[in-house]
Design goal:
It is a single chain. This protein is mainly alpha-helical. The chain has one domain. The chain is built from nine helices and no strands. It has helices at residues 2-11, 14-30, 43-62, 67-85, 91-111, 122-143, 155-174, 182-200, 203-227. The longest helix has 25 residues, at 203-227. The radius of gyration is 18 Å and the shape is globular. The relative contact order is 0.15.
Length: 237
């Protein structure tokens, strides 16, 4: 019991919030990524502070704090803007789903005061199947300029982005129902995002997703403990 309590205290601690945000900011500024310009726009600044905001969203959701979903509405808009100017041609087609998902999660969580995670069921797998179909379709439309041109040199970017989008949508569609096993999916997502952001040259996000690997592992364990009735946290918002 004491080990479980300690693990939850670490996972939901404020110092992990601070470490995550500082990690993104310090590395980005140290490498000069904040100076990145695309089409005369300060994309590096938007990316760096957007990554810090997204980090707080993940940390708050980890603690089952609904404010994280609310902030997620803003970070979805920023991420679409940044990804598009860094080479993701389908960003403005795919990120609206992230925006809607954050909004739906906020409304669902607001009605669930206990915020007890649940185990997987049929709806969990139905959401995953629908997520991948939607992710592949939207990315193909975006990377082919609304079906007007072939993929060509964008084939590699399309493939990795479509897979990442499918995993992302899986998490987004399952977040309102608070499945504990969604965190296992985010592990795969984080590994792929590391590769994608190396491909796009987005250094700020590389640091962010490395931290997310650790966070998702801890969250998976803690959410399952909470689901089984072993919750040592204070009341969530």
């Amino acid at each position: 019991m004491e080990r479980g309590r300690r693990l939850q205290e670490i996972t939901e601690s404020k110092w992990m919030d601070v470490i995550g945000v500082l990690l993104v900011l310090v590395i980005s500024f140290a490498l000069g990524f904040h100076k990145t310009i695309r089409q005369d726009l300060p994309i590096g600044i938007f990316s760096t502070f957007g990554a810090a905001g997204s980090m707080m969203v993940t940390r708050l959701v980890t603690k089952r704090n609904n404010i994280g979903n609310l902030i997620g509405l803003l970070t979805a808009v920023n991420s679409a803007f940044v990804d598009y100017y860094l080479g993701n041609d389908a960003a403005f087609l795919t990120y609206p789903i992230s925006f809607l998902g954050a909004g739906i999660s906020y409304l669902y969580w607001k009605r669930r005061k206990d915020r007890i995670p649940r185990k997987i069921d049929a709806i969990y797998f139905i959401n995953i199947g629908f997520a991948f179909v939607l992710g592949i379709a939207l990315n193909y439309i975006g990377f082919t300029d609304f079906l007007r041109t072939p993929l060509g040199d964008n084939t590699a970017k399309f493939a990795i982005t479509a897979i990442i989008t499918g995993i992302t949508y899986s998490g987004i569609l399952n977040t309102p129902r608070m499945y504990a096993d969604s965190w296992a999916s985010w592990q795969v997502y984080n590994i792929l995002k590391l590769y994608q952001n190396v491909l796009f040259g987005n250094i700020a996000y590389v640091a962010k997703y490395a931290f997310y690997l650790l966070n998702a592992s801890l969250a998976w364990v803690v959410w399952h403990r909470v689901r089984k009735g072993r919750d040592y946290s204070e009341k969530t918002n």
